Amino acid sequence: MQAEAGNQDLDGCRLVADVVLNRVADPQFPNTIEEVIYAPGQFSVVHNGALAKSKGNISQNVKAAVDMELNNDRLSTEYLYFNNSDNGGTKHGDHWFK
Q1: Contact 69, 21 (CB under 8 A)
Q2: What does the pLDDT read at residue 87?
Q3: Do the strands 82-83 and 90-92 form a parallel or antiparallel pair, or are they unpaired?
Q4: Separation CA 45–CA 7 (nearest Å)
Q5: Could you count the other beta carbons within 10 Å of the beta carbon of residue 84?
Q6: Is the pLDDT at 42 greater than 90, yes or no?
């Protein structure tokens, strides 16, 4: 979340977390957080090195978002995708969610 949404507000961080958690729950995706994040071609921060660089430097928004989302205070259970350009979904901060 830090690499993807560390510069977003609390809800923006939560929505990125929701995409990952929603994928874990969806049978068309892998069933663990790690497998979802590292699935080939899914998250650019894995491939461009931003994920590795973000470890150990976690913002308070990201920490709060993780805590909320993992403790079943989910913001969204519908989004499976997000990106930085219009995907026909809902815009929040720098991302479009669908």
Answers
A1: yes
A2: 87
A3: unpaired
A4: 14
A5: 10
A6: yes
Most distant pair of Cα atoms in the chain: their distance: 34
Q: What is the DSSP string of the chain?
A: -HHHHTTS-HHHHHHHHHHHHHHHHSTTS-SSHHHHHTSTTS-HHHHSSHHHHHTT---HHHHHHHHHHHTT--S-SS---EESS--SSEEETTEEE-
Mean local confidence (pLDDT), 29-49: 95
| pTM reported for the whole predicted model | 0.92
At a CB cut-off of 8 Å and minimum separation 6, what does 85 contact?
Answer: 96
Q: Supply the pLDDT for residue 73.
A: 85
Residues 6+ apart with CB under 8 A from 11: 75, 92, 93
Mean pLDDT of the chain: 94
